[in-house]
Design a protein that fits this description.
Layout: E1 2-10, E2 33-34, E3 36-40, E4 44-45, E5 61-65, H1 75-78, E6 82-85, E7 96-100, E8 105-113, H2 119-123, H3 128-131, E9 138-142, E10 146-149, E11 151-159
Parallel strand pairs: 5-6
Antiparallel strand pairs: 1-2, 1-6, 1-11, 3-4, 3-10, 5-9, 7-8, 7-11, 8-9
Length: about 160
């Protein structure tokens, strides 16, 4: 079990990084970060663009380590959903984890890496796509209902790899 911090949460009702990166992101709300979000088993984050979308159910929620982002970058730039401090979440692919923000544990199957795309060079900065390879976060399937909130949390590996040694 590890004490971690949920630094930011992002729930975006629209897909903003479509088309050519040189054209820039699609318009949307100025700030899609939230302080809390409902998680639904097998569906994702209530209100998010991938919620209940069949093509995304096995990867509806993305988690990323704050330590892997350059100074000044945040979830608005990476389009990941949950930014964690205090854990190398990329090391847990193939595991089931629980994240408890104080309202009860929410289980996630950590399915695969969230590979950075060419958009990272536009939204984060030149060279970000290469710099974030292997550190771009993970795509997860929520296995239980619950609530995530910004602030202190506990992360526990339920099954699978215990992560970095």
């Amino acid at each position: 079990m590890s004490e971690v911090e949920v630094v930011q949460l992002l729930v975006s009702p629209a897909h903003r990084l479509a088309g050519r990166p040189s054209d820039g992101p699609s318009p949307g709300p100025g700030d899609e970060r939230v302080t809390g979000v409902e998680v639904r088993s097998g569906l994702g984050l209530v209100g998010d663009r991938y919620y209940a979308r069949p093509a995304h159910r096995n990867a509806a929620v993305t988690l990323m380590a704050a330590e892997h982002l350059p100074e000044g970058a945040d979830l608005r730039h990476t389009r990941r959903n949950v930014l964690l401090r205090g854990v190398d979440i990329d090391a847990f692919v193939g595991s089931t984890i629980s994240l408890d923000c104080g309202t009860g544990p929410v289980l996630f199957a950590v399915k695969r890496p969230a590979r950075p795309c060419a958009w990272m060079d536009v939204t984060v900065g030149p060279g970000a796509q290469r710099a974030l390879r292997g550190r771009g976060g993970v795509r997860c399937t929520p296995l239980s209902d619950g609530v995530l909130t910004v602030g202190p949390a506990t992360l526990h590996v339920v099954t699978g790899d215990d992560g970095p040694r």
